[in-house]
Write a structure and sequence with these properties.
alpha/beta, seven-stranded mixed beta sheet, about 35% helix, Nucleotidyltransferase, domain 5
Length: about 500
């Protein structure tokens, strides 16, 4: 006879213990509303749990409006963190003291809830709303509160307010711009940057963690500033409202799918894209560009269908911009582009882009040399920097037409050299899935985070239009008498 095994814990006790250890479970159990599960919420919660454990020191969240980032980071996380670390202090900030206090009250309500007292019975607040109390020796106001019998607590401050007299093991910065006008004001942006460096950052305890939550509104906002000023220091989560490519391995969606259908459908998002593309790309896709572009203007972008081109009289080249091989999130991209020149116009036929190591890069370039379309390129331009230095001698043994390119001048100067052809509407981009990401990078150049696609383009166009990089004549036209018989198949 098999004896029954007596479980020492009740189902409720098991659930409470899970909430103590798993932040996503905690957030769901303590929410004041009906919780709607979605993969992105669980992913963000996993990252925030690592923040609470000290495993992630710098985290940026830039997902779209009303997609749960503040609920998790500014309301649930402080309560969870203080439940596990009642002797630590938190500073929570937002664009105004009013909103900062509102988030403070939300976090405080979680701690004062009945379910929280069961999860973390040792973490509690003064039951009275007072600035001082001799009995409990703890403050409980809208902008500051302490954990009874512990050293921990919470301080709320608006962006720009001085933070004096206290440090923190966790600092949460949530939406520092009150509106789009603030984000577009250079004076306001400089003010926020100075406040972050002088007040916020200086208050972080040694070994402490910071979380910055911000909807993107401007290409030079605080998120861009942090990436440029502290390169490699911040881990960024940016899931776009509609998935446009497969660059992020953590995003399980198919291309074209919305982030949270329960919140916003594809139809709703595409309507925003049609009426306000600046808001769509910035606040919903997380990749804002300057209005109209900087060096390369939006009105210069021309789209075409590759199936409509007749390539028989085209000059076709490949252009490769390689980087130091690596797959880390903070490494840059390598990119290869296929260009055709027909008359006065240049057409980008195709592009491949990724974070490949040296071996992968070598194999990809070799494979493209045998691709039915890419093999029609006689010249293969490869920048002789980074991985190019190592790979060019190896590629020359297997791929004909490898031309090492020594860049001349600055990146901006090379783009300015081809800018007249862009403005004259001679440059065409394929109407394909990765085109929006290319457009954003082109319009943001030179202030954007990435420039690999623009570098490959300027390299190709300077070769085709300006004869830069080589004293040799341009490659023979594919449709010339010497080459026509070698072409197999067609587009």
């Amino acid at each position: 006879m098999i004896k029954s095994i007596e479980i020492p814990f009740s189902p409720e006790e098991v659930e409470l213990e899970l909430a103590r250890k798993d932040f996503y479970t905690f957030a769901k159990m303590t929410a004041e509303f009906e919780w709607k599960d979605n993969w992105h919420l669980e992913y963000i919660a996993t990252k925030l749990e690592k923040v609470a454990k000290g495993e992630i020191k710098r985290l940026i969240l830039t997902i779209p409006f009303r997609h749960g980032k503040s609920q998790l980071a500014s309301r649930a996380l402080p309560a969870y963190y203080l439940g596990n670390h009642p002797n630590d202090r938190i500073i929570g900030t937002s664009h105004s003291s009013t909103l900062a206090k509102s988030m403070s009250r939300d976090a405080k309500r979680v701690i004062q809830s009945e379910i929280y007292r069961k999860i973390f019975p040792e973490t509690s607040l003064n039951p009275k709303k007072v600035a001082s109390d001799s009995r409990y020796k703890s403050i409980n106001t809208s902008d500051q509160w302490d954990i009874i019998n512990h050293r921990g607590g919470y301080l709320a401050k608006g962006a720009g307010q001085a933070i004096q007299g206290t440090g923190a093991s966790l600092i949460i910065v949530d939406d520092v711009y009150g509106n789009r006008e603030d984000a577009y004001s250079e004076t306001m942006r400089r003010r926020i940057e100075n406040w972050f460096d002088q007040d916020v950052k200086s208050r972080l305890d040694k070994g402490g963690s910071m979380v910055v939550v911000n909807t993107r509104m401007h290409h030079a906002d605080l998120i861009a500033y942090l990436g440029d000023t502290y390169p490699g220091e911040w881990e960024t989560i940016n899931f776009p409202a509609i998935k446009e490519n497969d660059e992020d391995p953590d995003d399980p969606r198919g291309i074209g799918e919305p982030l949270w259908p329960w919140r916003m459908s594809s139809e709703e998002l595409l309507a925003i894209k049609k009426s306000r593309p600046d808001i769509y790309y910035g606040s919903y896709q997380g990749v804002p560009s300057p209005p109209g572009g900087t060096l390369l203007k939006k009105e210069g972008i021309q789209y075409f269908s590759v199936h409509d081109l007749d390539l028989n009289e085209a000059t076709i080249i490949q252009s490769w911009d390689l980087r130091h091989g690596g797959k880390g999130k903070n490494t840059s991209f390598a990119v290869g582009q296929l260009w055709a020149m027909i008359g006065a116009n240049a057409y980008m036929l195709d592009q491949c882009r990724g974070k490949w190591d040296s071996t992968e890069t070598l194999n990809i370039i070799k494979a493209k040399a045998e691709d039915p379309l890419w093999s029609r390129a006689r010249a293969k331009l490869i920048e002789a920097k980074a991985d190019g230095k190592t790979l060019i001698p190896m590629l020359k043994q297997h791929v004909p037409g490898i031309l090492p390119i020594e860049p001349k001048g600055s990146k901006e100067g090379r783009v300015m050299a081809i800018q007249p052809y862009w403005s004259a509407l001679n440059i065409f981009i394929p109407n394909t899935g990765w085109a929006p990401a290319f457009e954003i990078e082109a319009l943001r150049f030179p202030t954007g985070k990435n420039d690999d696609q623009v570098d490959a383009m300027s390299q190709a166009l300077n070769y085709l239009y300006n004869g830069i990089y080589s004293n040799k004549s341009k490659p023979q036209t594919i449709g010339s008498a010497n080459n026509r018989g070698r072409i197999q198949g067609g587009w």
